[in-house]
Amino acid sequence: MTRNTPSYTQPLKLYRTPLLTHPSKQSENISTLSAEKQEPFKTPVPSPYPGWSIENTKPLPYRAFRYGPKYNVTMGLRSIQPEEWIELDNQFPKYHAEKAARIAERGPKCVATHPDAYPAAMELLQELADYLPGRYPTLFKRTAVGIDNIWSGESFNIVETPLKEDPMAICARLVQDDLALMIEKPDGQYYLLAGAVLLAGFWRLSDKYGMSLADIHYSGDVPHFKEKLETGMMKFFKRLRCETFYTRNNYFIQVDDALAWSWSIGSEDEPTVSWATAEKDKPINNHWFRSERQSLRRLPKTGAVCFTIRTYFLPVTDMASEDYVPGRLASAVRSWDGHVSVYKGKEKYGNVLLDYLDKEHEKQVSSGLQLDKEDEVRKYPW
């Protein structure tokens, strides 16, 4: 892909609450969304995650695919409570180590903050420093100058300036998610102006940095974006309120075991990558299920829209041992239309994957699995 970064000759107008903006200046700094944004909002202190342990809390088993025959293209948003914003589990050490290595090795290719987004990046860092010790008190401790990671021994001073590194890099070290900040410019469009995209697998921050929300999706050839997603997505961004948090899920099949970058689609440093380079019909033990749990919220002081992107990653063979999963996943894959199939690389693995899933489903049915009871056992997105 060719990087398409617009010039930044005009400063952004960030959202301000009345507490941060002089009344006589509010009209200059608040966009058309101002009527919805003037009431101050403070993210509530979350209750501790019940029984959370860095040794024993397993990743949540998202299985965000539905039976066919129709594959519905929607934003798939669900509202969540603010305390559910960030999900951590016993894979934190692995993700933390891989992120640290990526920051050291690839730096600005994966982490960047445009000057116009720096206030939003600092706000996100402050939000995490306030949220994480409340939600995960055995892992994080709030300090007078920032936040400590009890497990790793890291201390982050977020008060002393300049910071030791990009604020988005610090944010990335605190969570298992990738992070992106969308900033509204005077043209009313939202632009990706800050991010820490370290474990995304199939896309690179350097390809998308500086792009508008629409161009991000067009450049990625997201199926049916224009006719089914664009209008609703733009309206959603305009109407998103600080106090309402959302989540959504997606899923992909990957034919290598690399969490950070799926090398099957090409080298991470090649200008263009695609499924064309992937080996076809690899044995099933090379098939991995990659699922993203994304959260979306508007930061209250700057008005930036924050994406968190948590990747869950496991072998298809592990997941297929779960009741109902192989049959439902096979049906979902068969429901992909031509555009979705190309986007997800089905031609490279579909035959092997579906043959395996069908056999696993048949085994479950032969063992007495009651198909009509599935809704009583597991519902979307599980």
From TrEMBL:
It holds the Pfam family HODM_asu-like. Residues 1-10, 23-35 have a biased composition (Polar residues). Residues 1-48 are annotated as: Disordered. This is Uncharacterized protein. It comes from Thelonectria olida.
